[in-house]
């Protein structure tokens, strides 16, 4: 799990293009002031328009494997089953097993 990119207020003068590149790639970022988080920069995209800030951020962070399913449902303000439904409507898997791990899980379950 990669940490979010962090920019200081001063960085914005010299690294603003990096912040825009992150946004174009769908990557949120944190902007700090005096070493403390001050702004969460969230890409302005279709997901944000359709879902609103909480759900869009939850979907994005979950998709990028930065937060767990439970954390994402809490961030989205939804019960776990409702968030799983939201994932389905967004075309995102709730579980992402590598094929060999899934086969092993299935063998164990049977």
Total helical segments: 6
Proportion of residues in β-strands: 5-15%
CA radius of gyration: 17 Å
Q: Write down the domain tally.
A: 2
User: Care to count the β-strands?
Assistant: 3
Helix-strand pattern: EHEEHHHHH
Distance between the termini: 31 Å
Major β-sheet strand ordering: 1-2-3
Helix content: 40-55%
Question: What's the main sheet like?
Answer: 3 strands, mixed
State the shape: elongated
Q: Which structural class best describes the helix and strand composition?
A: alpha+beta
In terms of per-residue confidence, which ranges show pLDDT below 50 for 5 or more consecutive residues? none
Average the pLDDT over all residues and give the rounded result: 88
How would you explain this protein's 3D organization?
There is one protein chain. The protein is of the alpha+beta class and 110 residues long. The protein has two domains: 5-41, YefM-like fold, CATH 3.40.1620; 45-110, no CATH class. It has six helices and three strands, in the order βαββααααα. It has helices at 11-24, 46-51, 53-63, 69-76, 80-89, 99-109; strands at 5-8, 29-33, 36-41. It has a three-stranded mixed sheet, with helices on one face. Strand 1 (5-8), helix 1 (11-24) and strand 2 (29-33) form a beta-alpha-beta unit. The two termini are 31 Å apart. The model has no long low-confidence stretch (mean pLDDT 88).
């Amino acid at each position: 799990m990669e940490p979010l990119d962090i920019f200081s207020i001063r960085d914005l003068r010299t690294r603003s293009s990096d912040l825009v590149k992150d946004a174009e790639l769908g990557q949120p970022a944190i902007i700090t002031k005096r070493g403390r988080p001050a702004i969460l920069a969230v890409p302005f995209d279709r997901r944000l328009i359709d879902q609103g800030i909480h759900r869009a951020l939850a979907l994005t962070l979950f998709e990028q494997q930065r937060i767990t399913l439970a954390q994402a449902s809490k961030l989205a303000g939804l019960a776990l089953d409702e968030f799983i439904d939201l994932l389905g409507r967004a075309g995102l898997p709730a579980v992402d097993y590598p094929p060999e791990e899934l086969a092993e899980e299935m063998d164990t379950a049977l």
